[in-house]
Write a structure and sequence with these properties.
mainly beta; signal; Immunoglobulin-like
Length: 291
């Protein structure tokens, strides 16, 4: 009897191993943010609502046998802020509770990323992202490092590509910032637009977003020198400006710039009359003399 019982357990153990589940093991199939983080209203303070994370089994029940660690980080971090406090929390009955997380400096549109391991026989990585949240006390901002001079697509001579950086209050660049910067036209004298092949949103690399593919469809030039009220403008009386924005930042506006029109000579100038040289008056019988 005892031998048969032992053989039965051996068969059960082997069968379970073949399908990847051992007796007593739990299958942590997924992870969810059960309490979303809510930002602080005073700079440097802890988040008003600290997040909690739950590891779930395939059937949606908490994985109560999982006592591993959950790690928190900033998965979306437009202002290059740091996440301080205890960024690791242990699972208890499948739930990890964070207690003192601080995002500094602040900003908007952060997302927190949580990672853990399942309690499988062969543990699998689990990951979850929080909803967007803010943290008060933003010190980072956008700054235009290189102001634009955009041209027509058909004539790119003289173009200057704009560059926008994420900086702190002192103007120091923040190379870890991951903001995606977008551009729009703010001052638009001739109802121009960006060409279809222009790239209007650029993710920051090293804290900088460089717009190397921007072209406009219409020209706009400054008045030529000498224009008066009586003569009127001798060219377009307006110029373009661009606005750069990113989630969590106030927009910044560029300096004014003009866009030179294309000049094509469709008909070359020519004379419609014959111009003869004036007579030469001289003395003597030399050839060509008059009188």
């Amino acid at each position: 009897m005892g031998r048969r019982m032992g053989e039965w357990w051996a068969v059960l153990f082997l069968s379970a191993a073949l399908v990847g589940v051992l007796p007593g093991a739990a299958d942590g199939a997924s992870m969810v943010v059960s309490t979303q983080p809510v930002g602080n209203t005073i700079k440097g303070r802890m988040l008003e609502t600290q997040p909690t994370v739950t590891v779930l089994l395939d059937d949606g029940r908490p994985d109560v046998s999982n006592s591993g660690m959950v790690m928190a980080s900033l998965g979306v971090n437009p202002t290059a802020a740091s996440l301080n406090g205890h960024t690791q929390a242990q699972l208890y009955n499948g739930v990890a509770t964070f207690t003192d997380l601080v995002v500094y400096p602040g900003g908007q549109d952060f997302q927190m990323k949580f990672t853990a391991m399942s309690s499988d026989v062969v543990p699998e990585p689990l990951e979850a992202m929080s909803a967007n949240f803010f943290a008060a006390g933003q010190e980072a901002k956008l700054m235009i490092v290189t102001h634009p001079r955009i041209t027509l697509d058909a004539d790119r001579r003289g173009a200057v590509a704009p560059v926008v950086a994420v900086v702190d209050d002192l103007g120091n660049e923040l190379p870890m910032a991951t903001a995606t910067v977008s551009v729009s036209i703010t001052r638009n004298p001739n109802s121009g637009s960006f060409t279809p092949n222009s790239v209007l949103s650029v993710p920051a690399e090293g804290g900088r977003a460089a717009f190397g593919s921007l072209w406009l469809t219409r020209a706009a030039t400054m008045n030529e020198p000498g224009a008066t009220i009586d003569t009127g403008p001798r060219g377009y009386d307006e110029t373009y400006t661009l606005s750069f924005s990113a989630p969590g930042f106030a927009a910044v506006e560029s300096e004014q710039f003009d866009v030179s029109p294309l000049v094509v000579v469709s008909r070359q100038p020519s004379s419609d009359r014959v111009v003869s040289a004036p007579p030469v008056w001289c003395q003597g019988g030399l050839e060509g003399c008059m009188g």
